[in-house]
Amino acid sequence: MICTNHLLVFARVPKAGTNKTRLVPALGAEDATRVYCHLVERTLGPVRHLASEPAFQATIYFTGGSTTEAEAAFGDSLVYREQMGSSLGDRLQQATRCAFDSGAGRVVVIGTDCPCLTTKDLKTAFAQLEVHDVVIGPAVDGGYYLIGLNANHTALFAEVDWSTCHVFEQTMLKANLLGLSVHVLRKLPDVDHPEDLLAIRSVARDAPHPLQIQAGKLTLVIPTLNEALNLPTTLKAVGVPDKHLEVIVVDAGSSDQTVAIAAQFGCKVFKGNPGRANQMNAGAAIGTGQHLLFLHADTRLPEGYRAEIQR
Fold first, then answer.
1. Could you give the C-alpha distances from 207 to 11, 31, 247, 285, in angstroms and in order?
2. Beta bridge partners of 242
3. Residue 233 neighbours by CB distance under 10 Å
4. 90-108, pLDDT tens digit by residue?
5. Would you list the DSSP string of 68-135?
């Protein structure tokens, strides 16, 4: 009996320095890969649950390693195929075409970046493909975390500005031009940038190692942009970071010595996406303190501030 519901999971074999590279400046290569592995496991839970039912088949489309490495990383209970093509659009076209050629009637494709994705979301996508040509799950950042097809509509993957905030909009426009009916799923966050890690904290009871909260610790977050004149005085008042004090400086691309000064004072410092909200969220997302303090770079904390905050 041919299984007509095919779920395709696009994944990369975990290797430090190749996974979640936009998280590396904030977390380092090893911890960024640990976060990626956490995301994969959260994704594969619903995938395995769905694949255990006779009406569904799941295939891992992998890149960045061999089939043996992929099976070792993701488990040997699923089907594995290597991604083929020079661009994401090419790889999506090849994978969906292969699924339909093998007898699929409905194909759903997901990545491994969406920590809030559930089995219910996947079942809803397949169910809606019985009455719609396309199902799409929009991501908060303007992309999509899921796309489903009831036929080989490969034109949806051509001439798309991948990894931008225009992906969902462009795909919807293409579907409309092709006369395809579309069902839009609930909007969900995915994890690409440090500030996106807040999505993991919102759903994970036990966060991956680099994001685990430490009792009694204070995380102090300072968003900066060209604050070399103010920062030394501010950081002197903050004090030297220790096991109970974590100081995170999230820089928006300073052209002065801001980053170097922060490093000299022992801060965890990295360049984040510009905009104070993005910078503050990025610091909060990677912070490991039980308490958070957000501070302007020109603000002087009073002596004994840590005891007062604890109180």
1. 20, 12, 20, 11
2. 245
3. 13
4. 999 999 999 999 999 999 9
5. HHHHHHH-SSSEEEE--SSSHHHHHHHHHHHHHHTT-SEEEEE-S--TT--HHHHHHHHHHTTT-SEE
